[in-house]
């Protein structure tokens, strides 16, 4: 009889994102990482439920997105990395990377609505480049 590790891969899906002619290797988050981020940023839960954020929650949500990206770069809780992400990536780039991380984390989405990658020709996709799979990594749904 197969064990749990025979059924489920031990690592999260990975993907390479192209941004301004540079490659950024990201991965999906696991349940414990999501729980830690939700504890730090309860706004993540509100955003996933589709609630309209207050202005303060919107700002915290942008901070949460940066923390999610840092985690996807294997730098969870590293405030220096979070500061670099916030200063180097434009808002559309952050949104695109965040969306790809969430698509890798929860390929089926939340509340029946999948996280969708930017389609070719979308402003975010045009400004930031297209996501590409790393060879050997599972394709996003």
Write the SSE topology.
Blueprint lengths: L3 H4 L6 E6 L2 E6 L3 H10 L2 H7 L5 H18 L6 H10 L2 H15 L17 H6 L2 E2 L9
Antiparallel strand pairs: 1-2, 1-3
Helix pairs in contact: 2-4, 4-5, 4-6
Structure description:
The protein is mainly alpha-helical and 141 residues long. The protein has a domain at 30-108 and 121-126. It is built from seven helices and three strands. It is globular, with a radius of gyration of 15 Å.
In short:
The protein is 50% helix and 10% strand. It has seven helices and three strands; from the N terminus they run αββααααααβ.
Give the overall pLDDT as a whole number. Answer: 77
Q: Kindly state the percentage of residues in helix.
A: 40-55%
Output the strand order for the largest sheet. 2-1-3
Proportion in β-strands: 5-15%
User: N-to-C terminal Cα separation, in Å?
Assistant: 28 Å
Largest sheet: 3 strands, antiparallel
Number of helices: 7
List the helices and strands in order: HEEHHHHHHE
- Overall morphology: globular
Radius of gyration: 15 Å
Low-confidence stretches: 111-141
Based on secondary structure, the structural category is mainly alpha
Question: What is the count of β-strands?
Answer: 3
